[in-house]
Amino acid sequence: EASDATGWGYGRKLLMNRFLDAAVIESSARTLAAEGLAYDRCQVGIVMGIDAGDAMPERSIDTMEDLFKVFRTQIDVVLPGGTAVLNADDPAELEMAGLSDGRVVLIAASPDNPAIVRQRADGGCSASVRDGRITVSTGTTDVPIVHLSDVPYVQGPHMAPAVVRTLAAVAAAWSLGVPFETLRTGLETFDPACVTGTPPPN
To answer: How far apart are CA 164 and CA 171, in angstroms?
Structure first.
């Protein structure tokens, strides 16, 4: 369906489909506040950015602290064997790292992001762009996946937010054990025309 599918009902519809092996469910701040998550636990939880523009005064959600409580819901439900994927460029998200029952993968376009540098020094997992290549790292061990110039989705005027979104997808797939060759093929062949609208800044 070509529509906003962030509502609780859409998520439940996916989970009730007995032919699915996996489901990707998106939730907006408004959906989280009004309806909650469509599931109890998940293998991978991703937060892409906390924006003050998501405030909902009608629900007494006015401050960044209030929004933090809304978005942390996604990280609270990560399974012990699962993964939380957090944007290292967002200080509020970094505070969520300790809330995950599973491991944490930090993402940032720049490998020089201080949180990414600390994550690597501590032996943790991260995904960033190194030498022009989307790269996943465990500690200081790097695995280059694909060159940015070979990824159609990140080309064009909205490259910066598209790169962060792509890193989140790579981190999620990597956490689920998707082979690197499969990841590379998917990134190189994904048709950007499948994504409607203009990517927001966060």
So the answer is: 10
CB atoms within 10 A of CB 33: 21
If you average pLDDT over residues 8-20, what whole number do you get? 92
CA distances from 23 to 17, 132, 168, 179 (A): 10, 30, 16, 18
Q: Of 1-5, 36-40, 44-48, 77-81, give the lowest mean pLDDT range.
A: 1-5
CB 120 within 8 A of CB 140: yes
Cβ–Cβ under 8 Å, residues 107 and 127: yes
Contact 123, 129 (CB under 8 A): no
The string of DSSP codes covering 105-129 is EEE-S-TT-HHHHHHHHTT-EEEEE
Can you tell me the distance from the alpha carbon of 6 to that of 103, in angstroms, rounded to the nearest whole number?
A: 25
What average pLDDT does range 43-52 have in this prediction? Answer: 92
